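Worked example
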Amino acid sequence: MSAHAVISQVLAVVVALALAPLLSGWVNQCRAWLQNKSAPGLLQPFRLLHKLFNKDSVLAEHASPLFRASPYVVFGCMVLACAIIPSLSTTLLLAPAADAIALVGLFALARVFISLAAMDVGTAFGSLGARREMLVGFLAEPALLIVLFTTAMIASSTSLSAIVQTLSAGSPVISPSLVFAGVAFTMVSLAENARVPVDNPATHLELTMIHEALILEYSGRHLALLEWAASLKLFAYSCIGLALFFPWGINVSDSPLGLLLALPVLLGKLLIGGALLALLETISAKMRIFRVPEFLGTAFMIAVLAMLVHMLLGS
C-alpha cells in the first residue's frame, strides 16, 4: 500500500463529495439559462443540504428500521461507487476491488434499498415510484453491463483502472465500438439519473415523477442524504463516461504533479458535460412512462451492437 494510492483515494472521495452538489447546481444553472429563466446560484444545492441537515426528521408511524437505514445505505453505496471510479487517478487504494461488475452491483444495491423504503410506509405514490424505479433498473442495468463489457474486452480486464490505463494509452481516435457504447451509455445515464426524457428532476407532479416519488416520505437529514446521494450518482455516471470515453488527463502514474493536473482537467470536462446535459434536456421532451422500455431497449441493442462491432471488426 503506497502513500500515493492512499492520497489519491482520499482525494477522490473528497472531490466527489464536494463536486457532486456543484455539478447539480451547474446543470440547473445552464438549464435555466437555456430556457431564458433566472438561474439559481451555483451553491444552491449546498444551501439546500445545510437547511435539511438542520431540520428534524419526521418519520411515519409504521416506518420500519429499513426506512430509517435506507438513506445511509444509499449514500454509502454512492460514496463507495465514486471511490472506485478512476476520476483523477488509476492508482487507487480500492483499485483491486474496482471491478465493473462490483460497480453495477453498488448501483443495484442502492436501488433495492430505496425502492423497499419507498414501499415500507405503504403510501400509493411511494409504491408507484418504487415500481417505476425497478422497471428502469431492470432495463438499464443489462445495457450498462454490456457497455462495460465492451470496454473490458478492449482492455482484456474488468478492472476499471486497467480499462482506463489501456484506453488512455491508445489512439486518440475513438473506435466505432466506443461510439456505439457511448451512445448507449448516454441513454442509460439519463434514465438512471432521472433526467429528461425519462424523468423530469424539476417536476413535482406525482403521476409523472420517479425519483421524487421514492423520497416523498423523507425529511430532515434523511432527505439531505438522499439528495446528496442523487448528486453523487450523477457525478459517478459523469466520471464513468469521462473515464471510458474521454480518459485523457487522468493520472496513470505515481506522479503527484499528474494528480494535481488531473483536477482542473476533471473540472473542465464536468463543465462541458454539465452544459451538454442541460442542452440535451432543454431540446428534449419527457416521454410517457410506457415508452421508457422502448428507450432502454434501444440502448441495450446499441450496446450489443458495440460489442459485436468490437468482436467482428476488432475496433
